[in-house]
Design brief:
single chain, mainly alpha, two-stranded antiparallel ribbon, globular
Length: 494
């Protein structure tokens, strides 16, 4: 009998192990773990997994990552300890989207509505959005001693670099550059801000540093940084942090090449630096000339130059107000829209269609006017695939802004006569352009938007932050021509 009971016990134990094993392998967590392991492991787990991954789209990793952080940020901002006053779920969603998408548009005053814990949450969201989901995920993978999968690397390099650079090399250049400049900005802001409490001053300086470098534009002050508009150290620090954050991670990796005779700067970095310099210089001259006797009339000559420099360096990518934009002329506002549309350099914290995109389109036009079939500059020929991508990005940017402005006019103005809403068009066009370019400047209508209008702006911010990735994904994954085409027929153009 003892032998029989022993055998029965062994059978029961074996069956229970089998049940636990089946429960484990049927658990969704097991499959999530399997997907993550196969994504980052250098060695394939199964042939079936490899075949399935060939048809997967790694861009979804980035898209879902951004959206997940938006939802997580919204949930944390909705908790009671993050708020001083009751804030609606939609406003929390808007702020989280604006922080992750490094935009800076706000429907509420974040300085007074959120608690200290809420400010910390927004700070972390800005840093995550500024560095990018791919940068952070790659950093964590490398720190864990794992090797990123090929699809992960391809997305990372598409996001930051057209060159054959390893994520390790990019991270080694980007992270010290980022945190080094943020440390300098923190020190300058700390010495210039006026909070009597040392911790409050430290946190305000830290918050402003990350907001400036990540090109967000959030501040803890109700009037942004207008009160420091005549402080040269604050203005110059803000401008340099914004310019550094919009410089582009590939350009950052090539900065040492300026002092090396063995390595040359790539065409990408040359164009990015050239266009940035031209935009800053020309917009500074334009703003100084147009606003000299208008919004800058009460300032001294040196302060006028300082304001013009801050306008030219900050208005393209970051929503930091060092002057009241509602006092600017229509010409300056329209120039701001154009600057926001162009935006920052590729692979940076800023948005827009990017400086190199605008450069490629301009170079294409010049070469065609000169009768050249190839797109050439600086002794190099830009590949036709790159030219096509630039055209796609430009066209989609224009389409998104036009249709979003039309929808926002419908949600905010409806069928009201033009005489009653004569200024709405420019304000809405400015708002949509700022959202798409993830700039964050506003003419004061963000808090007045309807619920549908706020959701639309959230969508535009999300598309503006990830739009180039959508385009690259669509182009790369598009199927090749099947060899069938129709007969040609000419049309009149121009």
């Amino acid at each position: 009998m003892e032998r029989i009971f022993a055998v029965m016990g062994e059978n029961l134990e074996r069956k229970s192990k089998i049940r636990y094993s089946e429960a484990f392998f049927n658990c969704p967590i097991f499959y999530l773990w399997l997907m993550l392991l196969s994504s980052f492991s250098a060695q394939p787990l199964e042939t079936k997994v490899i075949k399935k991954r060939k048809h997967s789209n790694p861009i979804l990793f980035v898209i879902l990552g951004y959206f997940a952080f938006i939802l997580i940020g919204t949930l944390f901002l909705s908790l009671p300890f993050a708020q001083k006053e009751s804030i609606s779920f939609l406003d929390n969603f808007f702020i989280a989207t604006s922080a992750i998408c490094v935009t800076g548009l706000a429907t509420i005053d974040i300085g007074t509505m959120y608690s200290h814990a809420g400010h910390w949450i927004i700070l972390l969201l800005m840093q995550i959005g500024g560095l990018g989901i791919m940068t952070i995920s790659t950093t964590l993978i490398l720190l864990a001693g794992m090797r990123p999968g090929f699809s992960h690397q391809s997305v990372f390099l598409d996001q930051f670099s057209p060159e054959n650079l390893s994520p390790n090399k990019v991270l080694k250049a980007v992270l010290p550059f980022t945190f080094g400049l943020e440390a300098i900005g923190l020190l300058v802001y700390f010495t210039q801000f006026s909070e009597p409490n040392l911790y409050d001053r430290f946190f305000s300086a830290l918050f402003q540093t990350i907001s400036s470098f990540c090109n967000v534009g959030f501040t803890l002050y109700p009037n942004s940084l207008i009160q420091y508009g005549s402080n040269p150290l604050v203005v110059l620090t803000s401008a340099l942090l914004v310019l550094a954050g919009s410089f582009g991670f590939l350009a950052i990796t090539e900065l040492p090449y300026l002092f090396s005779s063995k390595k040359k700067i790539s065409l990408h970095t040359k164009l990015a630096m050239l266009v940035t310099g031209i935009l800053v210089l020309l917009s500074m001259i334009f703003f100084f000339a147009v606003e000299h006797s208008n919004s800058l009339s009460s300032l001294a000559f040196g302060d006028k130059l300082l304001a013009a420099f801050s306008f030219s360096s900050i208005s393209r990518t970051a929503g930091i107000n060092l002057s009241d934009f509602t006092t600017l002329s229509s010409a300056s506002l329209f120039l701001t829209i154009l600057l926001m549309f162009i935006g920052a350099n590729p692979g940076s914290c800023g948005g827009g269609i990017k400086t190199t995109t605008a450069a490629v389109i301009a170079i294409l036009g010049i070469n065609r006017l000169l009768g050249k079939e190839k797109t050439m500059v600086f002794g190099r020929t830009i590949p036709q695939e790159t030219v096509n991508k630039a055209i796609y990005i430009f066209i989609i940017g224009v389409i998104v802004i036009i249709f979003s402005s039309l929808l926002l006019l419908l949600t905010e103005s409806g069928s009201q006569p033009y005489a009653e809403t004569s200024s709405s068009f420019l304000k809405i066009l400015f708002e949509v352009s700022s959202a798409y370019a993830t700039c964050g400047l506003s003419l004061g209508i963000t808090s007045e938007l309807s619920s549908l209008g706020r959701l639309l702006i959230c969508f535009v911010m999300f598309v503006g932050r990830l739009g180039p990735l959508f385009l690259i994904s669509a182009v790369v994954s598009s199927e090749k021509d099947n060899g069938v085409w129709y007969s040609e027929e000419n049309i009149m153009v121009g």
